[in-house]
Design a protein that fits this description.
With about 240 residues, the chain is mainly α. It has 11 helices and no strands. It folds into 2 domains: about 120 residues, Cytochrome Bc1 Complex, Chain D, domain 2; about 60 residues, Cytochrome Bc1 Complex, Chain D, domain 2, CATH 1.10.760.10.
């Protein structure tokens, strides 16, 4: 259980803090138009380490139900780093935004090894999704200037340098949680080799054990496209 937040009026503070004219897109600007369905997709980057459903289990990281507006480091029974406890305060939109942009920049010494999420629209969509997973969601009111802010969206390939084939999505989100996908693409392993690597990731590197069918999907993908003949080695010409 989370200790309830004191400031239920965070949404309001947000609107007041906005500059009248601003070309730079801040997450606060984008939130009123944020797309929580896209945020749910973005949450795949977090799923290796977090659940977000009410009463969800802790993984490497704490359960995130009700995180928006909650006091920092308040899940009972989760062993936080001293650095995160020292941060204090609540997960206001601004503080959460700063953390998700680059966790180690806001909290030097946090044990969240996630590199960060660069695009403001991605963070806004994600925060909107997290906000929905709550007993007391904040309301993000639209201001006229923001109405079209989130309209332009490119449909760019989202899985970095990983080969486009069934299983790429699962593999990308599971394996780029802690390091770049480049590390994965540079390997060329047999199926058994990948299996051994999974075991090593779980035993020594803090990865959570995969569940089925995810495990087989990822294993099939890696074996087919990052096998011993290294068909997709980065930079290799076909
Ligand atoms: C590689 C594992 C990992 C990934 C990936 C990850 N986190 Fe975390 N997260 C952690 C750990 C571990 C902590 C505890 C940090 C500490 O105690 O310093 C944490 C803490 C947090 C907290 C603070 C929770 C609290 O109760 O105060 C938030 C918020 C959070 N993560 C959000 C996210 C979101 C959103 C994503 C996806 C964009 C994400 N994390 C991705 C491991 C991860
Ligand atoms: C919980 C964090 C975490 C997750 C999730 C994770 N890894 Fe790793 N991985 C590490 C760490 C830590 C290292 C060692 C440090 C480094 O090289 O960055 C590492 C190193 C590696 C290496 C380099 C091995 C070498 O020879 O140097 C490969 C390959 C790799 N990981 C593949 C994967 C694959 C494939 C997945 C997805 C199935 C995955 N990792 C998921 C944490 C993780």
């Amino acid at each position: 259980m989370r200790i309830p937040a004191i400031g239920a009026t965070l949404g309001l503070c947000l609107t007041i803090a906005l500059p009248a004219i601003s070309t730079a897109e801040t997450v606060a600007d984008l939130l009123p138009q944020a797309d929580s369905a896209k945020g749910e997709k973005a949450f795949k980057k977090c799923k290796a380490c977090h659940t977000v459903d009410q009463g969800g289990k802790k993984k490497t990281g704490p359960n995130l139900f009700g995180i928006v507006g909650a006091p920092v480091a308040s899940v009972d029974g989760y062993k936080y780093s001293k650095a995160l406890v020292a941060l204090g305060g609540t997960w206001s939109v601004d503080q959460l935004d700063a953390f998700l942009t680059k966790p180690k920049a806001l909290v030097k010494g946090t044990k969240m090894t996630f590199a960060g999420m660069k695009k403001a629209t991605d963070r806004a969509n994600l925060i909107a999704y997290l906000n929905q997973n709550s007993d007391a969601p904040l309301s993000f009111e639209a201001t006229p200037a923001t109405v079209n802010a989130n309209a332009a969206e490119e449909d760019a390939y989202e899985y970095g340098i990983l080969f486009d084939a069934p299983g790429v999505e699962e593999t990308y989100y599971a394996c780029s949680a802690c390091h770049s996908e480049m590390i994965v693409a540079q390997q060329g392993l047999s199926r058994d080799g990948w299996l051994e690597l999974f075991e090593w990731m779980v035993e020594d590197q803090g990865m959570d054990e995969f569940e089925e069918p995810e495990r087989t999907i990822i294993l099939d993908y890696l074996t087919a496209h990052y096998g011993e003949d290294r068909p997709n080695f980065p930079g290799k010409k076909n």
